[in-house]
Design goal:
The complex is a heterodimer. By secondary structure, chain A is an alpha/beta fold. Chain A has 16 helices and eleven strands. Chain B has one domain: MetI-like (MetI-like fold, Orthogonal Bundle), CATH 1.10.3720.10. The chains are: A alpha/beta, B mainly alpha.
């Protein structure tokens, strides 16, 4: 999962370096993250290592592990020694605390902005020229429109997609739950394939040519556009979407055991610094620091963003009502 | 073979070793699944494993696996026959191709099959205009499970076919049997046990398959969700006990089916031995 360094090489390196740099310590951190942050953390880890070296003289190497957010959280629960986790949903970190007692209950209050240094949202990706004329969420329930999204039961990103559509329907129907349920029901009737993860859905939409519109993370949509050319896909910004807050935290039991608390703390805090925010913005995550956000204003269109805590009462509640077995999502497919 | 004439000494030692080995590799991990489900009450367990979505997935997984294994039984036998009985240019190459589904990472197989059968793929672009949808339907699941099961039948039937002496066929012919009679009265009974082993292996492999199916299935609840996906879905919700409950049901059904096939095989073997 994460990059392996040969032990021998390390021993040789340490043996050679120790007489010269007897003061500098070599520290390693393991950051367990989710799928689309690969590029972001490659850049950030290098920047942090430089910052930490300048500040303390210590060498810090950050190893990365990527995968589906839920799968990664289960890895940590089952003993993967992560110093920090940077996942897609706070629900996944809640479970690390609940199932394995590795983090305190109030972990999300430890850092600003609900422990989310950068945010993202959900947008619509359509084919060049927007042949089906998709402007907003209500175009997705029209007959004959084929919608691609991963399965909310298996994909964290898909849960954001679902909730964004649901929040739109609530707003259109004066918070009428029954109508919102019918809306997402109609939307999912237009979904021909439910991939298990976000990257799988991207492949279905981009490579297999299936679907008219792809509900996607904003950063993934930008990335797809950058990789495949703006001549193939267009981003459609809906009238309302959801503020996705991918949270970060350190795993207390692990950092205490490995004595890495100070550096893990600094690693997460530096995400909020100007440099950290710049790197996030460059990788298409919305920065939370005001003046960096201002600088990248043009890149990120203003969207009316609702918060999960305000509309759905937080992740725990949303998970229970909508995505648990027998929940609202399951009801769509039960006859 | 009676025990007294056994050439290998140390029956107790080797049996003990076998049991220890099986326990470590197979029984202990599997019994952990059973123990985990004891966290559930009987009615909770029953509700989980009989939920409509889960039942639909059993039907698809076991149904598609049976169809896949049956297709392989027919065409695997044919392939083995061709490879053993005829000599032709490129035979070694074809022989090697048979093993490819073994060696290929299943995810690669799944992605390749999906690419070919999707509406813009080579085969899909011909089939879809004619109303035959393969990718993202249960038919796609059958195709993926047929693909991964092929080597099992070919490789179990092949050696038996090689050992089958052509004298028996000549004898049958000289006694007045026509070609069909020679096949189903002489050759087929001799091949049947091996064919059934191959079928059972292909079936068992298909039931547990995840990687290749997940890409081509479409994963629509009630329609094209396989049971292993249901298990993953439950894990994704941190529902460890729910996941193991479904896993236990799969284990029990698989075990019973394999036991049945083994029983049939034993019966066929005995009948065959009596006939000779």
């Amino acid at each position: 999962m994460y990059t392996k360094f040969s032990i021998k090489k390390w021993l040789v390196a340490i043996a050679l370096a120790s007489p010269l740099l007897s003061l500098a310590a070599d520290i390693s951190l393991l950051n367990v993250s989710y799928d689309p942050t690969r590029e972001l953390y490659v850049e950030y880890n290098a920047a942090f290592a430089k910052h930490w070296k300048a500040k303390t003289g210590d060498n810090v190497t950050v190893k990365q592990s990527h995968g589906g957010s839920g799968k990664q959280a289960r890895g940590v629960i089952d003993g993967l020694p992560a110093d920090v986790v940077t996942l897609a949903l706070s629900y996944d970190i809640d479970e690390i605390g609940a199932k394995a007692k590795l983090t305190p209950k109030d972990w999300q209050k430890r850092l600003p902005h609900n422990s989310s240094p950068y945010t993202s949202t959900i947008v619509l990706l359509v084919r060049k020229g927007n042949p089906k004329g998709i402007k907003d969420w209500n175009d997705l329930v029209k007959p004959g429109v084929s919608v691609i999204t991963p399965n909310p039961k298996t994909s964290g990103g898909a849960r954001w997609n679902y909730l964004a559509a649901y929040a739109y329907a609530l707003k259109q129907n004066n918070n009428d739950d029954a109508k919102a349920r019918a809306f997402v029901g109609k939307l999912f009737k237009n979904v021909p394939v439910l991939d298990s993860g976000a990257r799988g859905s991207t492949t279905t939409f981009v490579e297999r040519g299936i679907g008219d519109v792809f509900i996607s993370w904003e950063n993934e949509a930008f990335l797809a556009q950058k990789e495949l050319g703006p001549d193939k896909f267009e981003i459609v910004v809906p009238s309302l979407s959801i503020l996705a807050e991918p949270p970060v935290t350190m795993i207390d039991k692990v950092v205490d055991k490995r004595k890495t608390r100070a550096v893990a703390q600094a690693y997460l805090e530096y995400l909020y610094s100007e440099e950290g925010q710049e790197i996030a913005a460059k990788n298409y995550y919305r920065p939370t620091l005001d003046f960096v956000a201002k600088k990248y204003e043009k890149q990120f269109p203003a969207i009316n963003l609702i918060k999960i805590d305000d509309v759905f009462g937080g992740w725990q509640k949303a998970q229970k009502i909508h995505f648990a077995d027998g929940g609202v999502f399951d009801a769509i497919y039960q006859k | 073979m009676s025990k007294k004439t056994n050439v290998l000494p140390g029956f107790n030692l080797s049996l003990g070793y076998t049991l220890l080995y099986l326990s470590l590799i197979v029984l202990i991990p599997l019994s952990a699944a059973f123990i985990k489900t004891t966290e559930l009450s009987l009615s909770e367990f029953w509700n989980i494993v009989t939920a409509p979505r889960v039942v639909a997935s059993y039907k698809l997984t076991f149904g598609a696996s049976l169809i896949g294994a049956s297709i392989n039984a027919v065409f695997g036998l044919l392939t083995a026959w061709v490879l053993v009985r005829y000599d032709f240019f490129g035979k070694k190459l074809i022989d090697a191709f048979v093993d490819l589904p073994f060696a290929l990472p299943t995810a690669v197989a799944g992605i390749a099959l999906t690419a070919v059968y999707a509406k813009n793929g080579w085969i899909g672009s011909i089939l879809e205009p004619n109303g035959i949808h393969v990718a993202f339907t249960p038919l796609g699941v059958v195709i993926a499970l047929t693909f991964i099961g092929l080597p099992f039948v070919v490789r179990t039937v092949q050696p038996v076919l090689e050992d089958l002496e052509s004298e028996t066929e000549e004898a049958a012919a000289s006694l007045g049997a026509n070609r069909w009679q020679t096949f189903y009265k002489v050759i087929f009974p001799a091949l049947l046990p091996a064919l059934m082993t191959g079928f059972a292996l292909a079936f068992a492999r298909a039931v547990g398959e995840y990687g290749s199916v997940i890409f081509i299935a479409g994963n629509m609840p009630m329609v094209s969700e396989i049971t292993p996906l249901i298990i993953i879905t439950k894990l994704e919700q941190y529902d460890y006990t729910g996941a193991t409950a479904v896993a236990v049901v799969m284990l029990v059904i698989s075990f019973l089916l394999l036991l049945m096939i083994n029983g049939l095989q034993w019966w066929a073997n005995r009948r065959n031995a009596e006939a000779i």
